[in-house]
Write a structure and sequence with these properties.
The complex is a heterodimer of chains A (about 350) and B (about 575). Chain A is mainly α and about 350 residues long. Helices cover about 50% and strands about 0% of the residues of chain A. The radius of gyration of chain A is 20 Å and the shape is globular. Classes of the chains: A mainly alpha (about 350), B alpha/beta (about 575). Chain B: One of its GO terms (molecular function) is zinc ion binding.
Chain lengths: ~350, ~575
């Protein structure tokens, strides 16, 4: 009897519960539990997880796109009439600073209002996912805001007032330039030098020079170079082979982010997508990967957690789906490994870019 | 989103928790609003400090508030004397410590601490180091703390030797400390640099600082080998020591160079192979024929490649087609200050100049060749460990690496045997190991071919799952890939510019995209493969001299009118076997 129970439990574990995940993301966009209050300043990234998650699930029909699009545009830091705040433009994480709601016209002068590079990145992605044509994005302002964030060593701050600076924000910057089809937003060569400088002795990438290798930063490095079209130019064949080896060794069942750390659902995407970009993802074990991801699935509320028996959250829910998509889970849309949006959304971007170039 | 474990609680407990949270939330929003109205009015006083403190205690990730706090502190500097400023910053450090106790992984808190350490009139660096020690004792993988430690060490000029001792202590008490090994890798080259004569040549791309252990002097390296061996003998299953060991054994990247120039009178064409993929289109390469610079258009092996290890150009018609004439050709690569000469003699249809892979020690698996006695002794140690731990994958991998460094051909049999074991003990990565093994078999075949001084490449029946090093095969005329497990002849195959015969029976080949514009290709033998569509055969139409094609045992031959369609697609193929 006990054996049958555990067998059926096992089978239940391996079943992908699509509908629960759809409802998880819907709830994410309506109300968040109080413990998420600290993420208020980065709310737009949470929206991105939910939207892109629904896109991967092919369930965008459950939301009101127009409403969402308006809200996202309200987060754009618009240039003031005298254009004196261009270096502070981009997208905010939420309305927490208290700027009056506005989706058009001139910006309001406020000493502490500025874009945040990760919000600009996820804001643009979210608009694309919702099918918007980015016509209300002030591209030149965004690019000016981006340029103001790059340091001499090639890395980026997150905000113009200053913050920590590292490879994460290079990835955001590269994605922004890629989407806006305009690399004047950054000094690409300097960024590449910073990326190369972050390659560690074991051929993973750290957050910056001298820092420990990590699956997330390795993704940022490789995906950035791919978006820039400079992967082969920036890294030798030998270096690429060693990076492949470091990444492949991260699989234990699912993937870990660093050696001797426990596996965590999100690395099924960060490391998986890196391996995909390096053309060796097919050498990983799909079954073990899938079994681990599904072991972190929450059968009741939907979503995925970083570890089994933990509470799910939007980030792991989204990246868990992306991890499954990489291994070809049938009901899921394919994800563009460098830009981290569905291929469908990517196609939409491509078409937009074609019309821009035609003009 | 940091891994909150589910905990069941009673309804009453839930209600109490809810009330407490609501109370906190009210205080939080009130403080936040007060804070922003102060900020809006440009107020930078003690009360503002107090307000931001309240908020940041519960939400250290509110970046804007840290920035506001920094403004307040800087303003306070202008209205306080030095001892008051010192006290203010000391309070700040205490406040930060309490934040870090609650959340030791907050970017905002660590960043702010670093900022404070620059502003405070006096910093107690010993105390900062001890804070790091304590933090690391709770979580030795907290990279925020490690990063801060590096900053403290730099700012307070802690001698590198002392930090090295610190890693000695950590590693000594727990070999499995990956972050310590990492830190060590950054310290060693600083303390024991190799002499400047062996610095990488100018003009090479900027090295990443940590990738090359050749920046550590020999004496220290030998000591490190001993340390690392202790580690992996103690716990052979821990990756830390093995990755570090691999780094120690590593050697410098080769200089970039032109590895081969090939000239053919028939097509009046020059093919150039490089040691790595390059972008030669943007005027990077110069051609000089018989002392005269020639204007030519360089193209890569396939239109889809902007970067390629092989580049081709056509010479102006009549330049070299008269077999009675001798010619001297030089290819210049100004960016890398290098060039290659090639003489085309009277009576000869083709000519080449190439560095052999053997001489270049191309496949010596990245290891330091000048110290073969050291490598030999390392191999002995690892073999000893293997006797105790025959199924340890790290040991097997390292032994394979060492054997390839010492004598790739001599150790071929053992290498294959070890790969077999490796695929069994680490079956999750067996596809990766098959790929790696294919690569080594191809390398060995290239070495054998060079030794025999022939232009025939045969890797038949070797369980090949993939092709690589195709840039080394620029000169070969015959290739035998039969009886393997190949599925694709990928785009890179078009580097085989001299190829006349392609034998690939008994594989699982589905696509031939790399059999593209091969000017000398005459025969393609594909019996018993998986070519399923006419479209898959389209690349063959770009090969002007193709006259024999064997497609027996392929699904495409089963489709209706296969023969006539093929004849239409490949009209010049006189002999078509279906």
């Amino acid at each position: 009897m006990a054996e049958e129970e555990s067998l059926s439990e096992e089978l239940e574990q391996l079943e992908f519960l699509r509908d629960r995940h759809v409802r998880f993301f819907q709830r994410t966009m309506q109300v968040l539990p109080e413990m998420y209050a600290s993420l208020e300043t980065t709310r737009l990234t949470i929206l991105f997880f939910a939207l892109s998650g629904l896109d991967v699930l092919d369930a965008l029909d459950v939301i009101d796109s127009n409403d969402m699009i308006e809200w996202i545009y309200s987060l754009q830091v618009l240039p003031t009439e005298d254009q004196s705040n261009l270096s502070r433009c981009g997208f905010r994480g939420s309305s927490h600073i208290g700027i009056p709601y506005s989706t058009k016209g001139h910006g309001v002068r406020h000493p502490y209002d500025s874009g945040h590079v990760a919000m600009t990145y996820t804001g643009l992605c979210s608009l694309l996912i919702l099918g918007d044509d980015l016509s209300r994005v002030n591209k030149q302002a965004c690019l000016a805001g981006l340029r103001a964030l790059q340091l001499d060593d090639g890395s980026f701050y997150a905000v113009p007032e200053g913050s920590e600076n590292d490879i994460r924000f290079i990835y955001c910057a590269a994605s922004i330039c890629y989407m806006l089809d305009d690399w004047s937003g950054m000094d690409v060569q300097k960024a590449i030098e910073y990326i190369r400088g972050s390659l560690s002795y074991d051929s993973g990438f750290g957050q910056g020079a001298g820092r420990e290798s990590h699956g997330g930063w390795t993704y940022c490095a490789i995906a950035s170079l791919c978006l820039m079209g400079r992967l082969e130019g920036a890294l030798s064949r030998r270096e690429l082979d060693r990076i492949r080896r470091w990444c492949i060794m991260r699989q234990q069942s699912g993937f870990q982010g660093r050696p001797n750390k426990p596996v965590d659902t999100c690395y099924s995407f960060w490391v998986g997508a890196t391996l995909e970009l390096l053309d060796v993802f097919q050498y990983t074990n799909f079954d073990k990967n899938r079994t681990f991801i599904l072991s972190t699935q929450d059968g009741l509320v939907g979503g995925f957690a970083k570890w089994p028996e933990c509470s799910p959250d939007p980030l792991h829910a989204y990246l868990g789906l992306c991890g499954l998509s990489l291994i070809g889970e049938p009901s899921l849309r394919k994800v563009h490994p460098a830009l981290n949006i569905t291929q469908r959304a990517f196609e939409h971007l491509r078409q937009l870019q074609q019309t821009w170039r035609g003009q | 989103m940091h891994g909150r474990v589910k905990v069941k609680s009673t309804a009453q407990q839930e209600e109490e928790k809810r009330k407490e949270r609501e109370k906190k939330l009210k205080i939080y929003t009130a403080a936040r609003d007060a804070c922003f109205s102060k900020r809006k009015d440009g107020v930078c006083d003690e009360e503002a400090l107090h307000l931001t403190q309240q908020l940041l205690s519960s939400n250290p990730d509110f970046a804007t508030l840290w920035n506001y706090r920094r403004e307040i502190l800087m303003h306070q500097e202008t209205v306080k004397d030095e001892s008051e400023v010192q006290k203010m910053y000391q309070n700040e450090l205490s406040f930060l410590e309490s934040c870090l106790k609650v959340n030791p992984k907050s970017y905002g808190s660590w960043h702010h601490r670093s900022w404070v350490s620059e502003r405070a009139p006096q910093m107690d660096w010993a105390r900062e180091l001890s804070l790091c020690d304590r933090c690391l004792s709770l979580d030795d993988r907290n990279f925020h703390c490690w990063d801060y430690r590096r900053i403290v060490v730099k700012k307070s000029a802690v001698p590198v030797g002392k930090e090295l001792e610190f890693t000695d202590r950590l590693i000594g008490s727990n070999f499995s400390n990956y972050s310590s090994w990492h830190y060590r890798s950054t310290l060693l080259p600083l303390l024991h640099p190799q002499s400047p004569e062996s610095a990488p040549p100018s003009g090479s791309s900027p090295p990443s600082p940590q990738t090359h252990s050749h920046r550590v002097c020999e004496e220290q390296l030998l000591k490190e080998y001993e340390l690392v061996q202790n580690a992996f003998f103690t716990d052979p299953n821990d990756q830390s020591a093995w990755f570090y060991y691999r780094w120690l054994l590593g050697r410098a990247e080769r200089e970039e160079m032109i590895s081969c120039v090939f000239i053919s009178r028939d097509e009046e064409r020059v093919a150039v192979a490089f040691s790595r993929p390059v972008q030669a289109q943007s005027g990077g390469l110069l051609l000089v024929l018989d002392g005269q610079p020639l204007q030519v258009d360089w193209r890569s092996i396939h239109p889809r490649f902007k970067h390629s290890p092989v580049w081709i150009c056509d010479l102006p018609p009549g330049s070299i087609n008269n077999i009675a004439n001798e010619h001297n050709l030089t290819v210049h690569w100004p960016e890398k200050h290098t060039r290659r000469d090639c003489a085309l003699y009277t009576g000869r249809n083709e000519s080449w100049c190439r560095d052999s892979a053997t001489d270049q020690e191309l496949f010596r698996s990245e290891l330091s060749v000048e110290k073969s006695s050291v490598l030999q002794s390392e191999l002995q140690s690892c073999n000893q460990l293997l006797e105790l731990e025959p199924l340890n994958k790290w040991c097997l991998l390292t032994i394979i690496l060492l054997m390839r460094a010492l004598d790739p051909l001599g150790y071929e049999k053992e290498t294959l045997a070890h790969f077999q074991t490796l695929k069994e003990v680490d079956s999750m990565r067996s596809a990766y190991y098959s790929d790696l093994c294919s690569k080594f078999m191809i390398e060995n075949t290239i070495l054998k071919m060079e030794y025999a001084e022939v232009r025939v490449f045969s890797v038949s029946n070797k369980n090949l799952t993939t092709l690589c090093h195709l840039d080394q095969l620029l000169l070969i005329t015959h290739i035998n890939l039969s009886s393997n497990q190949l599925r694709h002849i990928s785009f890179h195959f078009s580097m085989l510019q001299c190829l006349k015969v392609l034998e690939a029976e008994n594989n699982c080949i589905e696509n031939l995209e790399g059999v593209y514009c091969l000017p000398k290709l005459e025969e393609v033998l594909l019996k018993n493969n998986n070519i399923a569509t006419l479209a898959a055969l389209r690349p063959l139409a770009t090969c002007p001299k193709l006259r024999l094609l064997d497609l027996r045992g392929n699904p495409v031959t089963q489709s209706a009118d296969a023969e006539s369609h093929l004849a239409e697609l490949l009209p010049s193929v006189a002999c078509l076997l279906l």
